[in-house]
# Entry
Amino acid sequence: MPSLFSRLPQYWTDGAIRYLEGLRNGLTEPFPLTQDPPPVTPYEVIYEAGKVRLRYYRAARASQSVPLLIVYPLIKRPYILDLLPGKSVVQNLLSQGIEVYLTDWIPPARADSWRGFDAYVNGDLANAVRAVQLHAGVEQVSLLGYCFGGLLATLYTALHPETVENLIALTLPLDMSAGEIPLFGLLDKLRPETLDLITATYGNCPAWLVKSSFTAMAPVHHAVDKYMGLYRNQDKEGYAEMFTLFERWMNSDVPLAGQVFREMTRDIFQQNLLRQNRLRVGKDVVDLQCITCPVLNVVGEYDDVVHPQSSLPLLECVGSTDKANVLFPTGHIGVVVSAATHKKLWPQVGQWLRERSTRIPERKTPWSSNTYTH
Amino acid sequence: MTEKTQHRVANLTSLWKAAFLELPLAGAKWGWGVGEEQEVTEAAWKGYDAWVRLANTQVDDLYRDPLVGELAVRFLDTSLRWQRFGTAVAEAFFAGLWPTVGLPTAAAMQGLTEESRSLTARLKAQDAHMQVLHKELSSLSADPPVRRKRRASGRGLNASLKASSAKMNGHQASTFPTASI
# Structure
């Protein structure tokens, strides 16, 4: 086996190449979507307008539940949800007979810097839900939002509750008063003038700034530890392939529209307005009590990007009676790619969804306790 | 002692033990031929893991320091201001230079790009509309009443949705169900 010191320069060079390629893509306008790896699961694009492209994945067997719309974050490309066979959330849900739709957000150009929560939630997401309703012939859809996508899905459900059958929030950044993630302390210090300077200089929040923030969250991991992990696991089957693909995704940062960046930093991170039911989106103030559909809140116990304390208060805020937390022992990205989640968590999510679907005559069985741990 | 301090002490102890006790001992045993190389490797990785945990804690502490936060934000502020200044100077200088050598300015190029994008979008919308009309026409000849009823219910649908083009993995396809709704 080659020694660690002969391997490290190669790992670092490969890492630097991936980083620079990601940087180049993030600076290219329009963003080169063709750089995504080939999809694992075939899909159709059934709707495209504004800044959203809606993908439709057909279920492996006859659908037993209302269609599920996955709301992906506005950060990075969405192929992490369909990364490899056996590590694909999309495939896992399809195999359970759930029809899946996915929002593939088109990265904003400089001319899109005006886009805020209103444009994304009341515009693009509302249109995407409408497109699912038409395509599937249903009146309501289930929503699953991951991270920032969970925020968009939660805002949408609170503003348009009549169109949502079930809401699943995955690692939702809701309560920013928790203060458990040290880097968010830096975001607190960003002055309004600095936010204006960023958007005045670049129009949007540039991809490299988004990337730097993620790298700064775990500098030791990004500089050394992930390569040590690769060296230690190089004999494990599939590890190197997974590592390369995962790193490619980690470098797939896209710009964040200027207005949504400003609203996210000021209203959510600094003032915690959503938790206090004081966040304004368009003409409306978001009241989380308006969410009355069944809610499943999936939280990563070791999440170091969105701390569990930030996600867990969701159940206290919503007006639903059928609601549950699932605390799974995994991290922020492990929740969608780890073998354990694909074996235990996702079948559980699928079951929860099927039990609460109006298409099948199964009796809804409310979960006996509010929190499930593994 | 707080939980964080306890963790830090545990990591420090673990690093100290691995570096000054376990690793030298395993190395000596291996050197004398009574131990195995595996033991040395394990002791080294144990020390490394403790070091990583300790380094992560130090980084977190650094971020929690208000002075570091203040300095980072000031640095960002200053670099952004200088960048804007540099861009403004370059634009003012080159704006007059490019036309004299027969090259378009960045603003002119951006204008052309926007115009070309808007034309492409219009062309796509027209193309999608043509496809819908074509499908409508061909389905009118043999149209069972059930399907007609279904389509009637879809007439009130959003026009932009109906005009959307269908794509398969990013490529044009003709499976969008607008005509059959």
